[in-house]
Amino acid sequence: MKITLRFPFTTAAGIRIESLELPRPKRSDLKAAQKFSNDAIDQEDFLFCRLTGLVVEDLDQLDVADNKALSDAFQAMVGGGEVAEVAGRSVVAGTADAAV
């Protein structure tokens, strides 16, 4: 999925970013994010960097409107759940949810 940025930016390496390619995430991406951190924000950063090819310093340069578009696109691909929920984590507690 291609996401055209409303507010393009230039990376620290001098590369102009006007759009992002977001491939469909795989289970391996989610598992790697879980291993990376228990923090939902860190997991989201990890996933978005892994999927877009950006480094976290460049990801941090996304305008909040473009970040929302990226997050919405990801959620649409996984059926509407929050990134932390998709990764099997509770948004509040930051721990794995138990099956009921």
Secondary structure layout plus pairing:
Blueprint lengths: L1 E9 L5 E6 L5 H10 L3 H13 L3 H4 L4 H14 L5 H4 L14
Antiparallel strand pairs: 1-2
Helix pairs in contact: 1-2
Describe the structure.
- This protein is an alpha+beta fold.
- It has a domain at 26-93.
- Helices cover 45% and strands 15% of the residues.
- It is built from five helices and two strands.
- The longest helix has 14 residues, at 64-77.
| Helix and strand composition category | alpha+beta
Largest sheet: 2 strands, antiparallel
Per DSSP, what share of the residues sits in E-state strands of 2 or more residues? 15-25%
Total beta strands: 2
Q: Helical element count? A: 5
What is the average of the pLDDT values?
85
Q: Can you tell me the residue ranges where pLDDT is under 50 for at least 5 consecutive residues?
A: 89-100
Rg (CA only)? 14 Å
Q: Strand order across the biggest sheet?
A: 1-2
How helical, in percent, are the residues? 40-55%
Distance between the termini: 34 Å
Task: Choose one word for the global shape.
Answer: globular
Order of helices and strands: EEHHHHH
